[in-house]
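Morning F.,

Quick status update on the modeling queue. The single chain you submitted on Monday has been processed. Sequence for confirmation:
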Amino acid sequence: MKKGYKVTDVQREKKIGVAAENLKELIEKSRKKLEFNVSYAECRLFVAEDGTLVDDDEYLSTLPPQTLFILLKKSENMITDFDYYYNMIRSTKKEYLETGAAAKQFLSINMKEKFKVFQRYIASADDSHTILSERSEDPGWFEGLERSEKTKEQSMSKRVKERMRGYYYKTKSALQSSDIYVYSKNVRGKKLIDQFLSELRKLLETNKYNETYFNRKAEQSSRLCDEKGEFRCGGPWNARNCTYEGEHIINPYRSREERIIFQTWNLDHKVELSRSIVPKILEALTSLYNGDIHCVSCDKYTKSGGIETDRYFLQIFTRENLKLVHIVCHYKGKHDAQSAVFTVCKDCFGGHTLEY
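Structure tokens below.
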């Protein structure tokens, strides 16, 4: 049975619709419609969203109708949608996008002394603009931001969502470059990982990317600042509090300068994403792939079961494992805290457990 797909070239200059029953038909029709002057053998097809190579009919059959593909000639390199649109924005908003990186580089040298200067500036800053919210009331605060950002709260919520998307794409990239994804037989490894990522993203979308964390008008229990927009450092990952009492405080709602400095504050994973969480997710997926599952709920071993996706969601995206810290308190060495393999048997499914 034929399904309808969308196909474009790597430059996104022309998008076409193609109905096809198999991979060969999809590539043949696409190369003709896109006017590629190369043979079928010289073409490759990728999923636009994440850059996955589609190289057999079985994997193609798992993808939904209207999936967008990129058709490439052998001489071309794949660029995912994320990278393509990021580069497009970067070309027009380069100064804005590089502000945070430049600030971090500047602060990495003689950091403590520079922050003493910043703290003196912050302490003497004009508080009169802090309570203002609308772009029309405090236009200077919005300098360098998108015109669609009408209030400070909207802008700060957007900054949280950007960080959350970053964690998601970092997780996705690591999982999809793993051996179980790249070299799995019968595409089972790909299906397991794609299914897990789909569920993880649904949880993220359901929770609106935790956009309330930086929003001073959100409910007190769901934000990290006070009602004025003031944030306090939580201290190093393994400490109860920040030892720089009264110093590591910032209100990005007060001025454009503090908003920019706030980009250097980190949402630090106490249990590290790359060193611990992702490896444990891969370990859990591998146990499903091999049919060797240990249930964390009832302690039984079984051949089939699922993953408690919500446990990993909490560790990657929520305050359960995230701590807002000043750059001085951001410890970049290895953390001792560890994640775990959250697999369960069929009898213990519940909540946001994903069955495989």
